[in-house]
Amino acid sequence: MRAFERAWFAKHASGVAAGEFALSGYGVADLVWLAWRPKPDEEDFSAVSLQRQLARRHLHAFEAKLKDWQRALQQAFRYRYFADKAIVVMPAGSEGGALANLEVFKHLEVGLWSFEAATGTIREHYTPTKVKALNAVARTRAIELLSGKIHLGKLGKEA
After folding, report:
1. Average pLDDT, stretch 5-27?
2. For residue 50, what pLDDT is reported?
3. Would you say the C-alpha torsion 84, 90, 96, 97 has a positive or negative sign?
4. Number of neighbouring beta carbons within 10 Å of residue 46
5. Rounded CA gap, 121 and 103, in Å?
6. pTM value?
7. Which helix (H) or strand (E) holds 21?
8. Which of 59, 76, 111, 150 could form a disulfide with 86 if both were Cys (CB 3.0 to 4.6 A apart)?
9. In angstroms, what is the C-alpha Rg of the chain?
10. Burial annotation 66-102 (CB, 10 A radius, 16+ → b, else e)
11. CA 121, CA 22: separation in Å to the nearest integer?
12. 35: helix, strand or coil
């Protein structure tokens, strides 16, 4: 998972991540990523402006499994309640069973990606589009929890 994180961060500079992210009632995601893009007219990247942006950006949750795609899918579907996108990540070469059942991923709107650790290559077999978290309250709780983990409130007071 750490190699996947490094590959993901190399491609996505604007965002905040947390590993082993637990939200009561929804499980523990291996990785969550809160993405945003600064507006062109924003002058700085202060904690206060970051806090405002966090409330309106996309939250991704990732579940990594070596082989058990069915369990990964079950877990990732639970993340759909608080995350805008939930993605199952499997090592390249072991995603065959999941690919054979790609229609199930599509029906549940859960993404399926594979990752080649040796090359850092992420392959998106299916990524849901135009989806939102199924529960807006849970999404807000997740963003607040993530914000607390990176101490945005404290940074905002210091700014």
Report:
1. 83
2. 53
3. negative
4. 14
5. 23
6. 0.81
7. strand 15-22
8. 76
9. 16
10. eeebeebbebbbbbbbbbbbbbbbbbeeebeebeeee
11. 27
12. strand
Return the bridge partners of 85, or none.
Answer: 60
Structural tokens at position 117: 């650790």
Residue 157 or 75, more confident: 75
- More confident: 30 or 36: 30
Give residue for tokens 């523990």. Answer: 28
- How far apart CA 56 and CA 36 sit, in angstroms, is 8
d(CA 101, CA 144): 35
Q: Which two tokens stand for residue 25?
A: 């009632």
Print burial letters for 26-38: b (CB count within 10 Å at least 16), e (below 16): bbebbbbbbbbee
* Burial of residue 130 (number of CB atoms within 10 Å: 0-12, 13-18, 19+): exposed
Q: How confident is the model at residue 38 (pLDDT cuts 50, 70, 90)?
A: low
**Residue 97, amino acid:** G
- Given a contact cutoff of 8 angstroms between Cβ atoms, the answer to whether 143 and 54 are in contact is yes
Q: How confident is the model at residue 48 (pLDDT cuts 50, 70, 90)?
A: low
